[in-house]
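[User] I have long wanted to understand how a fold can be written as tokens. Those tokens are not coordinates but codes from a learned vocabulary of shapes. Could you go through the record with me and say what the backbone is doing? Thank you; the sequence and its tokens follow:
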Amino acid sequence: MSTYFAGDPQTYPLTYVPFGAQYYRAPTPRPEDWESDLAQCRAAGFNTVKIWAQWRWNQPEPERFDFNDLREIMDIAQSQGLKVVINAILDGAPAWLFQKYPGCHMITASGQKLTPVTTAYRQTGGVPAHCFHHLAARAESVRFMEALSAEFADHPALAMWDLWNEPELTVGLLREPKIADLVCHCTSSRAEFLIWLKERYGTIEKLNRAWWRNYQSWDELELPIQPHTYRDFIDWRVFFTETLRDELIRRKEAVRKWDRTHPVMCHTVPPPIFSVTSSGSDDWLLSEPGDLHGNSVGSEPFAADLLRSAARGKPVINAEIHALSGGTFSRPQPVGEQEMKRHILRPLAHGIKGFLFWQYRAERLGAESPAWGLTMPDGTAAPWLAPVGRIARAIQHDEGFFLSARPRTARVAILADPQTQVFCWAGTLSDDVYARSLRGAYDALHQRGYVVDFVHPRDFEAGVHASYSCLYLPIPYWLSPPVALALQEYVSGGGSVISELWLAAYDSQENLHSAVTPGMGLHELFAVRESLTWPQSDRFSAYAMWQIAGQEDAGMNLILKKPIGNLDEGDAVPVRLAVSEYHGQAETLARMPDGQSVVAENIFGDGRAIVAGAPLGYSAAFAPDGAAAQLISGLVERCVGGPELQIAGPGRADLLTLDSRRFLVVSNESEESDVIRVRLSGKVKGFLGNEPLPATLEDWLEFALPSQSVEAYWIE
């Protein structure tokens, strides 16, 4: 089984800033529109279009590949000076595949055979494609990729290969995780899962020890369906994250048979939109094979920072900017330059290196039509096309800078662990707890002005975590062994860890609930033990905490014992879901109303370990400006000091730098016009030429910005 990492010796760097849009998803736009559309696209200031190569559409018979439509578009694009991204769509399989291999369908946990259908987003049918473990059907998809690569590897318009559009197991059919709907339970998946388990555990005796079973042979093994024994279920879902990664590797190898020149990538959907439990999508694994990485729905800083972190130094592009949403009975709202700045400048400031809108001409078939276009359905320019073009030209004018410039280095990273996400889902049958915890912690730090990265358990294996001064662990009930094993050395060496409640309360090495929490020996690092966990309502139980998760009145207050960040001694911090009390030698930073310690800090070696007996990120997600969010940022400030760039006012400022050049993006996040002050000096020039220039106050720049506006400046 092949594996590609960032150190893959053959690299294909991004040589320009792609800026443009998705253009062709057969059967629209129609051929008579291609030449005029692409000429207008180039005239608008774009340099790139993306087209879909659909397995079902372009291989109608086993021995007939029909790429005539794609070649004609590629030729027109070349004549107009446009580069093309070919997006390979293999999740709509040809009808002949299922006739040739009747046993290749995916099977759900309830026994349902997923026969191919046409969906609103795969208008040509064949969804979902074959099970990824059916060897013969899999070989047919590889053959299609090889033929596609052979056809276009030498085409002068080709920019790169996008090998997978939003990787997931069932292509949206069964996206919401439900026990009965999880795939795949076919004989092929069972066979490959047994191989995977044998590689991981070696012997049936070691598997029995991990799963707490008494199988006498591998043939006796039941595929995990009920999730509450945790380890077996997590193994089952992790297996599918690696399945998707290995499928991506096969696609890359198929392209590389003919094309050793052009970069390859895939583009994902950031959590929580895709649940790893049902989709199998893990950005850290899916970024491994590619030369760059991409995402959909990527205009928010959260998505940009998560994808940039997962890519670990590889370029990241917004492969589908969703700025013009709508459908058959809802047209997109008019979008002006200011809204387009939010979609482009904010991710640009977070290190994104390319921008492709979904899409150029509004489609005429499916649920997304006739919306989502930078043009009107008849191809005439929409009012928002010209503003996007102005931004595109400005970025391309300084392309060298934006290719190489980097955001300020993050000192704090948030743990994003897919196994924890699966564990939380298995324990609650909802992604709500983990998703809100992850996003709430990020937003608390982002709005305070911190540069934030994310780390994955694989980063701990590689030592990447040691480059950060502070690690934040949202609701780490399940803590992967590489993380748990690294924390003591990390803190002893001067790092800081801030953990929420239930730290390693499930021992992922023993595969049992921990007898002591923090578990896995971490009670020594944090110098506390959990004594009691309080529920938030009379209806709370250990088996149904999700029932009260969204209730407005379900909360308790933590009382600060000393000032933390912007909070004062005695301030109350409302939190949700549950509160854990601690006893031990660590210093109490916050207490329960009855005096019991609930936030505690231990100095260990040259670092510090802080445990907060509450789901602070989850609580902050319900009140982004509330005390829980302030406590998160205050604890980080206690560990690393203030944000990398000091600001005052209801906004955010981000800085890209390259040598002596600086590019500043300032946003007013309030609902009213306001003043944002940034501690920065230098000569200021507008990026587009129509920005309101700031007032200069000694070492500060003062920006008077309208509500929800984003502006960009060169600082010389």
The chain has four domains: 19-183+223-406, 186-220, 412-640, 647-715. DSSP finds 21 helices and 32 strands in the chain. The first helix runs from residue 34 to 43. The CA atoms of residues 299 and 344 lie 7 Å apart.
